[in-house]
Amino acid sequence: MERQEKQPPSQSYSETPVMWEDDAAYRRTLLQIILWVVAVLVSALSLSNLHHTDKTVSMMEAAIAIYCLVFLLRLQHTAKTTWWTSGLMLIVGSVIIYGMYSKGLYTDGFYWLLLMPPANMLLLGLVLGGIFTLCFGVLGVAVMVWAQPSIDGTLDTALLINASVSYLFLWAMSHIFEFKRAQMVQRLREIAARDPLTGLHNRLHLENIFQQIVKSHASEKQSFTLLLLDIDHFKHLNDENGHEAGDLILCQLSQRMTFHTRQSDWLFRVGGEEFCILLPTTRKAQAMELAERLRNDIQQLKPYFHKQTLQFTVSMGLAEWPLDGKDFDTLYRQADMRLYQAKARGRNQTVAGQ
Fold this sequence. Notes:
- The protein is an alpha/beta fold and about 350 residues long.
- The protein is about 60% helix and about 10% strand.
- The chain folds into two domains: about 25-195, no CATH class; about 200-350, 2-Layer Sandwich (Alpha-Beta Plaits), CATH 3.30.70.270.
- Strand 5 (about 305) and strand 6 (about 310) form a beta hairpin.
- It starts with about 20 loop residues before the first helix and ends with a strand.
């Protein structure tokens, strides 16, 4: 909607909702559940195996339980979850293979070994999980066949084939599941991040990118500019020509914005007719030049719609980080107030300062 009487914003733009959990957050959630389950399960198994003459397996299971509890304490504070998870899978896999080798797990060891492909893929991803699965699969099947020879003492070929096929089948199914899950998550991220009409990033993506740019520019002591752009009299254009014409104008504008900006710049549709551009490594004077080129280009743009031409203009407000504000809320407000000033001064102009 056109902001005929636009007032300086009162909303806190720092309250942007989180769009999605990243891959690390997803795996932390899984780990929290799995670690509790594993800790309880192996503790029970450790106690049940105490009656064996060789208590090595029982002690190793107890070590897994302790590792899981320590990992749980560190889970929300460490950035090295992959290292911790790799350590867990190494310990678990080693216990399973040792139990098969020492016959402490007897034939049960192979059943536990079949849990390795889905667990590795789920917790470590396709690449690292695939490496762990391959290593434990080769070792586990080899140890099982060696520990359980045929009646005449020769290699049990049938056991080797059946064990290998079973393990490979579970590995393939686990790989397909994880691949499809990652593919689906990536697709959902793209959908969530993009405005369906213009193809630009949407409002939910804005603050996340802003924080990334701040982090990189603060370390290099560089400035960047936030530009807000609003289509003048957009409500009137919609009412007079219909919403299809309005959509055409929005698409034409997004194309011109893309044409006039660099590949490193970030473009967002933040409202009905309001857009935002983040210009990394760009001072306000440079951003002003870009804004004026864009504004003049749009002024001359006359998209053709239903045997008539449409003409529209835009107003813009600029704010430079950290000169005009060090956080997202302050900088966005400053740019928005300057956009308001451009509207108040007659529209079709750019305001970069008082």
